[in-house]
Specification:
This protein is mainly β and 135 residues long. The chain has no helices and ten strands.
Amino acid sequence: MSAEARPGNPGEMTIRRAGSAIARAPDGIASGPFWAEWLLEGRLDGEMTAMRATLDPGIRTHWHSHPLGQLLYVLQGVGLVQRAGGPAAEVRAGDCVWFAPDERHWHGAAADSVFTYLSIQPVWNGTAVHWMEPV
């Protein structure tokens, strides 16, 4: 039996090799294109989704929320995060941000820095994110 299972087989260990799932993020979720690498693609309630995203300077996600919350861990660069009604805050490599369930927010790269982060969020009612309008 191979130690490397096919992604998507529930209940099995899965190894996804670095770089094997990198693609441009879909249109309509940020102010410009960015790279995303899917690490986990949960589909059932309670399963986790995770991705590593890299945004060029000045690129911001649209407003969005996550039904069960989101953990954002900054891997590289300088970014900005903001929850609805609050001020934007600068984050740097090593910082960790928690967005509460259904908390409307956005995150993006500072004007002069690439921004790479790890995003982890569980699925609820068939989705891990609800996309909204541009910032």
